Amino acid sequence: MSADRLDLVSKLYQPSGWPRVLEAASGGPSRAPLVVDLDPTTFCDLACPECISGKLLNQGRFTPERLAALAEELIALSVRAVVLIGGGEPLAHRGTRGVLRILGEAGLAVGVVTNGTMIRQNLEELARYASWVRVSVDAGTRETFGLFRPDRKGRSVFDKVIENMRLLAEAKRGVLGYSFLVMSRQEPDGRTVTNHHEVLRAAELAHDIGCDYFETKAMFDDDHHIVQVPQEVLASVDRQLAEAARLESETFQLVNSSTLTSLRGHAGPVQPKAYHRCQVAELRTLVTPSGVYVCAYHRGNPLAKIGDAVTDDLATIWQDSDRGMIDPSWDCRFHCARHRSNLELDRIARGEGRPPLAADYDPFI
Questions:
Q1: What's 179's DSSP letter?
Q2: Hey, what's the signal peptide range on this chain (predicted)?
Q3: Which residue, among 128, 96, 93, 91, has the nearest Cα to 113 in the 3D structure?
C-alpha cells in the first residue's frame, strides 16, 4: 500500500477515469460514477457501542437476487471499483460471495470493509477477488475488543477475528489492513474506558498476522465531526506509532488517516467548505437497501437520497437524479476525506490541473 494509494487527489488523474473526472469538474452530470460504496445489508452480528451507523442497523437487506442484479448493473455502468461496506456487516449477507465473484470476474476492483467475524465463510472469494480487505479491529487484546466491539451477547470474539485474518493473510492476492479507531467513553459508574494504550500492541499483532498495513484513525461523532481527544492521548498514540515504525518494510506499512492528521493540526471538529456543490458526488455514490445516497457521509439522510435501488435500476437512478441536492458549505461541515479532491476538481475546471498520468494505479478515488 504505497503512499500514492492514499493520495486521493493524484488518483483523479488516472487515464481511464479522466473523461468522467472532466465531466465532474465541468459542473455537469457525469455519465456514471467511477466508484460505488455498496451496503449489501444493514444487519450486523456485533453490537459496538460507538457504531456510527447504530441507528440504521438491522432494518433490511437486498435479496440475493437483487444484489446479484446490482452487481451486473454496476458492470454495465462501467463502474471501475466497488467497496462492499455498510451500516451492517457486508459479509453477513449470503449473496456477498456471489457479488465478489461477479465483480471480480468482470475485472472490477473490489474493496471490503468488515468486522472480520465472517472471513472464514467467504475466504475463497475474498482471497481471489478482493483488491483489499480492511478489518475494523480497534484493539490489541481480547479484553479491550470486548469493551468496544462486543457481539450481541456482550462477548469478545477477538480470537476468532484474528484467526480469520491469519487465514486470509495466507491465501490473499490483494491487500489486508488492520484498522484501529482510537476510542474512549465514560461508563455509567464514572470510569473512562479507552483503547489508545493498545496501538503499539495492535500494530505488532498486525505485523505478526501478515497484514500489509496498520491504520490508526480518529473517532467521529454521529454527525461525522471528528471527536477531539486530550493532548496526552494523542501524544500517547504518537509515541506508540514512533516505536512501531521499526516494523515497517516494503511489505508492511503504518498508515496515518487524515482524521489523525487533523487532530495533530488542531483543526477542530468543523471543516469549512466555501463551495456549494460536491463534484466528487458525480464520481462516487452509495447504494444501500434503504436507498441510494449522494455519498457515504449521508447514509440514511432522506435529504441526500437520490433513488431506491430495491425497485429501480442504477442507470435510471443516475440519469434521473440531481447529485447537487447537497450544499457542502452548509450540509457537510464535518471532516470529509474528499474535500481536497473537490478543491482539485475546481482547479481542473479553471485549467490549473496537472496533466493526466500515463497509467492507472488505483481506481479507488
A1: E
A2: none
A3: 91
* Lookup: cell for 308: 431506491
Q: In what order do the strands lie in the sheet with 175-181?
A: 253-256, 213-217, 175-181, 132-136, 109-114, 81-84, 35-38, 284-288, 291-293, 305-307
Note the pLDDT tens digit of each residue in 108-118.
999 999 999 99
Considering only the top CATH level, what class is 34-326?
Answer: alpha beta
Task: Tally the residues of the chain.
Answer: 365
Q: Cα dihedral sign for 264, 265, 267, 273?
A: negative
**Between vectors from CA 252 to CA 34 and to CA 52, what angle results, nearest 5°?**
55
Burial 232-247 (b: 16+ CB within 10 A, else e): ebbebbeebbeebeeb
Q: Cell 454496476 appears where? A: 74
Closest among 3, 44, 98, 24 to 284, alpha carbons compared: 24
pLDDT in tens, 156-209: 999 999 999 999 999 999 999 999 999 999 888 889 999 999 999 999 999 999
Round to whole Å and give the CA distance between 186 and 130: 38
Give dist(CA 284, CA 364) in Å, integer: 9
Rg of the chain taking only CA atoms, in angstroms: 20
Give residues with Cβ within 8 angstroms of 170, minimum separation 6.
Answer: 210
Q: Whole-angstrom Cα distance, residue 92 to residue 293?
A: 22
Residue 319 near residue 66, CB atoms below 8 Å? no
316, amino acid identity: T
Rounded to two decimals, what is the model's pTM? 0.95
Question: Residue-wise over 64-100: b if at least 16 C-beta within 10 A, else e?
Answer: bebbbbbbebbbebebbbbbbbbbbbbbbbebbbbbb
